[in-house]
Each structure stands twice: as C-alpha cells, then as structure tokens.
C-alpha cells in the first residue's frame, strides 16, 4: 500500500504509475495552470493529468520544462477528445497534444469518452502510438464494463488504465472488480465529488476521528481500494493538503462505512447516455 507520495502502482506492461497525481481540469491556461503544476511538483507530486479539451497543455508543458525535475521522473497523461476520435484524426490529435506539451513522448494517453462507433478505431491509433514508442502506456476514460469487453475482444494491446468518476457516492464495485481481474488500473476523477465531500456527515465524522480533512479521508479511501487518484486544485494549500494522506490508514470498518454511502450518483455525465 502507498506509504509516501513517490509510491507507484505497476501497470500491466511494467510501467510505474504514481498513486497520486494532480488533475488540471478547469485550471486556466497560463499562470494558473503553470503555478499549480510547479507547486505540485515541489510538493512531491510526479504525475500530472491533462487533456486536449482542457486547453491547458501548453501551460502544463511550460511548467514541466521549468520545474527543475528531470522529465523521466515525471508521469504526464493527456487524452484524445471526442471530436478527434477515429484512426487518422486521433494520430493527428496526439501530435498536436505532444507539441503543445513540448514533450518527446507522453507517459499515458487515454481515449477520453467511449464515442459509439468510433472508440475502437481510436484504440487502434493508440496501439500504433504505443508500439512506436510515442507513449509509454495507453488506456481509456469513462469506459463501462461493456465498453472494455468490446475493446478487449479484438485489441492487440489491452487498455492499461481506466479513468472514471469514482467517489463514495459512486463506488463502481462491478467496474473495479472487472478492472482488477483484467489488470486494468482504475483511476478516479472527481474523487472529491466536486467539493461535496465536506458536506457529508459520515465523512465529517471520520475526518474528526483521524484528525484529517474530509478530502484527505476520501483520497485515502481511494488508495486503500487500489485506485489511483488525481484531485484537482489550483490553490497551493489544497495541493499540499491533498498530498498529506500517507501517514494514516482507515480501518476496514471505516472503509466499509464509506463504501456504504454509495448511491450510484454521478456528478459528471453518464458514459452510456452522453451527448457526444
């Protein structure tokens, strides 16, 4: 189990993937995203998660260049947006993202949403990028079990990561079990329920019990479920606070308390009913 911020899980292909990363969704291009990434890296984070649609890849790239940590110690994720899905268009979109980031390679490239009738062609493009060494690992985002089975059925390289909405109101038990069985690493977006965790009585009580914040309780819960987590923040004190989750452990009973909060509630779109 993760004991410190530098700890990693190992993906199916042997690549090491940090348990904790910084998400930069909604972080504005320019100073805001650059400062957030630099603060995170100074704090000890080594993983940054962006996407073409976030429109801040250039800022992330600039911060990486200026942060003083060697490129090979960092783990950078970006994603192909829905409008760019399909084989040739994905290859082009990747090149655009890579140039914006100013990187020779990307650590993890994800299919952002399972766009019906397109995601398998998109996946073939990711396999090509992976085989040619442009990306160290490939995966998907917002894929349900049936989408994953569909890709696995005739792929050459299986998805190594599935990044989904995951938090105490949406515990995704079946999906988590399926991913574990297939050696696909589950990763949580919106782990803090878009800030809602601070308003949940059971989470507040656990925060008091452990002398931690509600956010820290939930991020710890992610890790103990074997789920990589990428809380987003642009505030320095929050970025530091979100990383302070390696010095305590939730009991099995308290893990179960959090699991019991599940109501299959999504704060983001439903992958099966999403207007692509």
Describe, in plain words, how this protein is organized in 3D:
The chain has a single domain (14-259), classed as NADP-dependent oxidoreductase domain (TIM Barrel, Alpha-Beta Barrel). Strands 3-4-5-6-7-8-9-10 form an eight-stranded parallel sheet. The protein has ten helices and ten strands. Helix 1 (31-43) runs parallel beside helix 9. It has helices at 31-43, 57-66, 87-101, 119-131, 145-154, 173-181, 201-210, 214-224, 236-243, 252-259; strands at residues 8-10, 16-18, 22-23, 47-49, 75-80, 106-111, 135-141, 161-165, 185-189, 228-229. With 276 residues, the chain is of the alpha/beta class.
Quickly list its features:
276 residues, alpha/beta, TIM Barrel, two-stranded antiparallel ribbon, globular, 10 helices
Sum this structure up briefly.
The chain is 39% helix and 15% strand. It has 276 residues and is α/β, with parallel strands linked by helices. The strands form 2 sheets. It has an 8-stranded parallel sheet. Strands 1-2 form a two-stranded antiparallel ribbon.
CATH class membership: Alpha Beta
Name the helicity range: 25-40%
* Class of secondary structure makeup: alpha/beta
Instruction: Count all strands and give the number.
Output: 10
By CATH, the topology is TIM Barrel
Pfam families: Aldo_ket_red
Site (Lowers pKa of active site Tyr): 79
Binding site for substrate: 112
Protein name: Glyoxal reductase
């Amino acid at each position: 189990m993760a004991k410190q911020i530098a700890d990693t899980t190992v993906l199916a292909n042997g690549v090491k993937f940090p348990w904790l990363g910084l998400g930069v969704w909604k972080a504005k291009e320019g100073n805001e995203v650059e400062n957030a990434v630099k603060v995170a890296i100074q704090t000890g984070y080594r993983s940054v998660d962006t996407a073409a649609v976030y429109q801040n890849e250039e800022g992330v790239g600039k911060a990486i260049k200026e942060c003083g940590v060697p490129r090979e110690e960092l783990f950078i994720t970006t994603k192909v947006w829905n409008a760019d899905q399909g084989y040739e268009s994905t290859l082009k979109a990747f090149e655009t993202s890579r140039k914006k980031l100013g990187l020779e390679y990307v650590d993890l490239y994800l299919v952002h949403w399972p766009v019906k009738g397109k995601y398998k062609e998109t996946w073939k493009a990711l396999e090509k990028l992976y085989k040619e060494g442009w990306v160290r690992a490939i995966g998907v985002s917002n894929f349900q079990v049936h989408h994953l089975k569909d890709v696995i059925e005739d792929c050459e390289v299986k998805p190594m990561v599935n990044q989904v909405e995951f938090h105490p109101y949406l515990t995704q038990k079946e999906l988590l079990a399926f991913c574990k069985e297939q050696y696909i690493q589950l990763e949580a977006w919106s782990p803090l329920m878009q800030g809602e965790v601070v308003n949940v009585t059971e989470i507040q009580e656990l925060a008091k019990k452990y002398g931690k914040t509600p956010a820290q309780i939930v991020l710890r819960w992610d890790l103990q479920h074997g789920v990589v987590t990428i809380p987003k923040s642009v505030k320095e004190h929050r970025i530091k606070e979100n990383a302070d989750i390696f010095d305590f452990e939730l009991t099995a009973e308290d893990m179960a308390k959090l699991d019991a909060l599940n109501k299959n509630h999504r704060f983001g779109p439903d992958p099966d009913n999403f207007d692509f």
